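go over this:
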Amino acid sequence: MTPEPMDPTAAFRELGRINLGETDLEGVLATVAGLAKRTVPGAYEVSVTLIRDRGPHTVASTGTAADHIDKWQYERSSGPCLDACRQGSTLMVDDVSAERRWPGWEAVAGSVGVGSTLSVGLPIREHVAGALNVYATSINNFDDDAVRLTETFAGYAAVALANAHLYDTTVTLAGHMQTAMESRAVIEQAKGIIMGQRHCSADEAFTILSRASQESNRKLRDVAAELVDRAQRG
C-alpha cells in the first residue's frame, strides 16, 4: 500500500521529533527514508547509503528495487549513489535508459522499473560519507523544485545522522567509562584485602595481584573480583 504524500513542513517536523534515546541508528535512517519517500514528488523508492571503513552498504530502504540497484553499485564500486557519497554532491539521472556513465547500471535500474534517479551526498563525519537516494519510475521526474526539496530534506537527514552517530558514540564511551570505573573499584577492593592479609603497601599489593593475573592468564579485574568474592563469603 502506497503511503499518503506528506507536506514537506510536516515531514521536517517529524524528522525533528526523532528521539535518539528511543531508537538506534538504523531506526533513525529508516525514518529518514520513509519520510523522504512520502515527501519528494514522484518518489518510488528511497534508500540511504553509508560508506564506512568496511565499505558501502544500504542501512535503510523502502523497498527491494532500491536494494537491488544499490547492491549492484556496491559490488562494482560504481554508480551514482557512490559518486554522490564520495563527492558530497547532488547527482541526477534524468533518463536511466540513456545513461552511460556507469556501464551496466542503466540496465539494472531499468529492470526494476526505475526511469530517473536523484542522489544527494550526506557528509556526516570524517571517514564516513552517505547519500540519500531517490528512485522514480518516470523519466525527468526531478525538476528544480524537487531537487531543492530533496537537498533541503537531505540537510535535515544529515543533521539527524550526525546527531545519531554522536549519541551512539557518547553512549558507547559512557559504557566503557562505567566498566572502567567498576573494574578500578574491584581492583582497589582486592588491593585492600591483600594489604590487610599480608601487611604490605598498596604498590606491593598491586604487584601481587598483577603476578596472579599473569600466572593464571586471566584479566586483572577477574582475578580481583574472585578475591573480593571469596573474602565476602568468608
